[in-house]
Amino acid sequence: MGCSFSGLNALYDAVNGGGEVWINDNRFRILRQLGEGGFAFVFLVKEVVADGNSSLAKKKSINPSHISDDGTYAMKKVIIQTEEQLELVKQEIRVSSLFSHPSLLPLIDHAIIPVKVLTFDLDRSSLTNGFVDMWTIPENFSYELVVHFGTQDGSRKHEAYLLFPVHLDGTLLDLAKIMQSKKETFPTITVLHIFRQLCDGLKHMHSFDPPYAHNDVKPGNVLITHRKGQPPIAILMDFGSARPARKEIRSRSESLQLQEWASEHCSAPFRAPELWDCPSHANIDERTDIWSLGCTLYAIMYGTSPFEHVLGESGGSLQLAVMNAQIKWPSEPNPPYPESLRQFVAWMLQPQPAVRPNIEDIIIHVDKLISKDSS
Predict the structure, then answer these.
(1) Is ATP-binding among the key words of this record (predicted)?
(2) Cα(first)–Cα(last) distance of the chain, in Å?
(3) Which domains, ranges and CATH numbers included, belong to the chain?
(4) pLDDT tens digits, residue range 73-91?
């Protein structure tokens, strides 16, 4: 059995604020933690400047529009324990660096650093009341400390730091939960404007040669910024699952491999049918994102995916609901959404990808709906 005490000083500083982190030549003070998931933590940080001038702003490689007026940013810290995890983080950085669009969250800067580890092999008799005698550790000890029982290797090899603009209003998922608790819904025009921005971001990704698919479009990956008297700004984030969209599947082993990958990288309630049960001979393309986009539009309207209702039913199967496009329409809010909006959702949620619209078709249609609702 392993027991580890790792990064004690950094952990204390991160929780209580005041810790500092260097990303390349720029220093940032950790203000507070914003979230966490898996091996990743997101912090609100503020650039530390010595002469009143941001050194980050002087970097020619950084778009000036991404520089914060008050020096605050969101910093994602990823704990990397294996070579596979290291490659995944490098892939996320490579893909994120490809995109430049107002509706896609930009990666401002990044660093991957090796972590020096000091390991003690102890038995339980070496502990006092379950804690290491900290007097044995030098006062100016600056390495990460990992303590474990036996010979199990619990050391970390790398840490990645990714710097982004900060959006403190949270995600579309956060907002949906708040609105559900108050039994509120977005008006139709706001639904359409949020959705239109997501379409713009995906169009940018789908326009590459070859096209890129996001592969995890969902409310939890949409950042929201409120604006007084205007619809909120919506920005698509998290490109850890983004890959070239087009794949030729020509065997059962290839289809199973794709399904396994999708089960790890594509959130189930928003995952396209062809990623649940891929034929042995299939051409996969960027229309997997169109399915997820349709589910997300439904979620903007009603707060959840159109298929999550089966999770609360006896014997319900999320996969079967998705494969058969069993959309459950809840009772309409007051005022109700127009039937044309519901038909728009259903148009994107066609189980056969060959008859699903592409992103250009979607944008033409949503612009017509916006024009109609505004007139």
Answers:
(1) yes
(2) 67
(3) 8-164 (3.30.200.20), 172-374 (1.10.510.10)
(4) 999 999 999 999 999 999 9
